[in-house]
Amino acid sequence: IVEQPPGVGVAAEALVATIRHVQALGKKVVLVGPPPSSGFNIGNCLERQARGMLAFGAPMENCSVPVADYRQFFALTDQLLARVVQETGVKLLSFDPLLCDQTRCVSRMDGQLLYVDAGHITHDASRLLVGRLGLAAELLPRP
Predict the structure, then answer these.
(1) Residue 5's CB: how many other CB atoms inside 10 A?
(2) What does the pLDDT look like over 88-103, one tens digit per residue?
């Protein structure tokens, strides 16, 4: 075991190695980026609003995530994923086209609350977004 200071480079090397091992087993690898977030508890905000209560700590009154905050919050993650995609050629699926416009990323879709907490989506949201992203078609073998 060799200790190294944490950083994008160290994480990228480890993830690239993992992807190569999985590919060597004959498996297809697809990376899925994180859902938009900026650190506040989106799920709590949505729950409080659904109950008619005041929601504290959210940057927007509708529990949306400002795109600028999201980009800043995930800047290192974006660097990591871009580097891994460049080095491995794997596909990166992003929630951004479904959830974000130029200024904000929504926290509800088709009447569904999407988030459980600050960065995890609900089971129902997973099914909704996977369908919209075409992830099942991307991963399942074609007949």
Answers:
(1) 6
(2) 999 999 999 999 999 9
Please give the distance of CA 87 from its chain centroid, rounded to a whole number.
20
Cα–Cα distance measured from residue 56 to residue 46, given in angstroms and rounded to the nearest whole number: 11
Token digits for 19?
């992807």
How many CB atoms within 10 Å of residue 8?
17
Q: Are strands 104-105 and 65-66 parallel, antiparallel or unpaired?
A: antiparallel
pLDDT in tens, 20-57: 999 999 999 999 999 999 999 999 999 999 998 888 78
Q: What is the pTM of this model?
A: 0.85
Residue carrying the six token digits 């086209």: 97
AA letter at 22: V
